[in-house]
Amino acid sequence: MKLSVVYQPAVPASASPYRVCEEKGGEIQWANAFLDGQRLRQLSPRSLRIYAYDLLDFTRWFAPQQRPLAEITESTLVDYVRHQLEQDSKPSPQTVNHRLGTVRCCYRFHTGQEIPAGQVHFQRRYTRRSPLGYGRPRPAVARGLRLKQDRRVIVPLSVEEVGKFWQSFRTYRDLALVGLMLLDGLRSCEVLTLELEDVQLADGQMRVHGKGNKQRLLPLPPEIREVLGHYLRLERPLTNAPALFVCLKGRLRGQPMSVAGLRSLFRHHRMRSRISHANPHRLRHTFGADMVRAGMSLPALQRLMGHSQISTTLLYVELAPQDVWREYARAIEKRKALDSSHLP
User: Fold this and answer.
1) Where are the beta strands (DSSP E) in 152-220?
2) pLDDT tens, 111-136?
3) What is the CATH number of domain 3-124?
4) CATH of domain 159-321
5) The whole model's pTM is what?
6) Structural element, H or E, at residue 139
7) Hey, where are the domains in the chain?
8) What residues act catalytically?
9) Among candidate residues 240, 247, 237, 275, the one with its CA nearest the CA of residue 174
10) Could you please report the per-residue DSSP string of 1-37?
11) Cα atoms found within 13 Å of the Cα of residue 50, Cβ hemisphere only
């Protein structure tokens, strides 16, 4: 059975535009019922797309077994994980864990219960502590298989890399795009969903629509205000599109800039500047790391970056590898100076 995710933009507002379908157009009912349920919860199209591809991968493995979803157990998920890890293009632990979480949510949506253990038992008890270290530890229970994930290390761009990448851009639109990520910490999806009415140049602020449709008000640095002003006056085509950033030329001139368009833009400038690891999220990481080094409080940075958990913001407190090396070199120089001062 050949399966795929199909995008159907003309569906009702209560249905997910992303559908898991068979080759001849037939739908996988249990998967799409779950996606429709998440649409009713007002999840973003991006989240629905991720859920759809998670279920697509599981369905491709599960459908040939011709069993109902209600019969799966944690033993089934163990076999599913084994199948994924035996593939030539083995997914990352983060991807596997996200797929398992989606399947568990789908099962709970249809049955109202957690997936039973089956022949395996991965349940374990542990102590949950506050990421900031205060408050009483609370007992918690982890249910089901979960792969160990590597601890994330924030590696921002250096000042030299930022300068070199920045100089490769020529249009005010592109400079504004990069500036919002680098000087305001916006995600790429947040930049693309900005509308004209969200930006208040006179007041020096903008309204950002973050994950989960959460809104936050952010200041506009003077540099970005100037660049945005030039873009709106000199470059932005006359169009009825409400999006702030639109295509400047070609057959899509005046149409909202797409995810693919932004990806292509960064790919071009990575080659042009030869900064191979410059991407939207790396720019956001650079903003977070710079704010921590400048002494910004964690709650303020959490609000600026739109993190739902302060544990995510805490990642920016840890030193990146180049910071560690810089501190090491500084300590060595101090040691040399100390030794030389004692020489006769």
Assistant:
1) 199-200, 205-209, 215-219
2) 999 998 877 766 666 566 665 555 66
3) 1.10.150
4) 1.10.443.10
5) 0.68
6) strand 138-142
7) 3-124, 159-321
8) 187, 211, 281, 284, 307, 316
9) 247
10) --EEEEE-TTS-TTS-SEEEEETTS-B-HHHHHHHHH
11) 13
